[in-house]
Amino acid sequence: MTEGLTEIKTPLELDGFYFAFRVVIGNTTFKRSFFLNNAQFAANLEVYNCIFKHRLNATAAIFGPSTEFYECRFIEGASFNFTKIEWSSFSKAIFKMTANFHASIFNGSNTFEDAIFKGKADFSNATVDGRINFDKATFCDGASFDDARPDPSAAPLSFNATEFCKHPPSFFGRKMHENTDWTGVKLPNAGRKTAQCECLQENDKRADDTVQMADKPMDPKVQAAQSRDLLEDDKRAYEQLRIKCGALGKVEDEHMFFRREMELTGRLSPWYTRVTYWLYHLVSDYGHSYWRPMAGMVGVWYFWSLFYALHFMARDQLHLCMDRVELLLSAMGLSFANIFAVFGFYRRFPSDLLADPTFVTVLLTVSETLLGFVFLFFLGLGLRTRFRLR
Amino acid sequence: MTAAEEDTPWLRLARISRSHKENIRLWNGYQKYLLGSFLFDYHSQMENPRFADIADLSDAEIRNIQTRIPDLPIELERHGAMF
Fold it and tell me: Distance (Å) from the C-alpha of residue B75 to the closest C-alpha of chain A?
């Protein structure tokens, strides 16, 4: 059909066509719509390096044993709703608008590796009897894997190094398969306010027909309300993912979604509560990091040692008969004992420095003990989370 | 249709009639006719009700198609690509 052709300028209506033989379409630009609704491919379909400038409609099409849309660009959206697909590859495909795979049936191994979904990706109600691989794919807008059927099925999906730029994947009603891979997945940053994600500009180098997705100017109040609604939706999506990973005992994934959920909860809270979430993140990455509390303890030890040294050097009424190095070492010991006050080091190794405490001395020791306790608690929490100590 | 598209036999078959239903009938019928040379594939595809339901084209209709589109393949290799 397209041999020797570089572009097809008229609409191509192949609805209901039966293809008994292998179909190969390469290096072709379809300037108008391409309809394949209810078409059936008995053998393989190989489409490579093609550009679909208008819609590709393949609703309820039945594809053969192997279907390939390699390095294809779908400019105006692609509809594969209710299709049956055995083995497919959409590697390096670019979907500029919505990619619809609603209620499709994926029987074999299917891959969207390195694909870019610039619009929404709709895999809702899809049945996955084989596997779908989204490794290194980029979702610039929402991705729906929701399942609203009375008997939802689990879908073995792989999101290895997949990037979700704007919204997390939505898994409402969908059972999560044990073999769902979230290794190296990049989730959207709640702090990023703009709709345009970084990946968009970066990946556009691959596409000539760039559609700018810059937001239209909008009333700031309306924009804020919409933004809040979207954040709440994202939070609920993370909550679902956390619950589902938790039910499967996928502790690392569960905590990854928990952290994102907390980040959004913080953003949606009033400023005075937001501070606590921010501190929780800063001190321990929501209970995930044990390096942060350790660094915090080292910092407290260092600074309080310095404070003590300066404080006691300024006070000469103690007549400690110590040179500066001895005083500094003694201050460091005092600081250490104060951080780990719960272990009672200060009782076993009493310090002369506290013989006649002033208000400042008390203030320093109390503040250090309290900070030390907080960091110690988060250190324990981080160790418990990381090493699954129960 | 551009001249280049006009030269492409499969595209011409896909649009041989103004009626889309007629196009489906002729296309599918011609597919069935071409597959007839491969008995194994023909019988295995006959298990697919969609293929089995395709009405056979008469010899006159096949000749008419081949006359109107002279460069349309009259036979295909078993695993050959259609387009």
Answer: 11
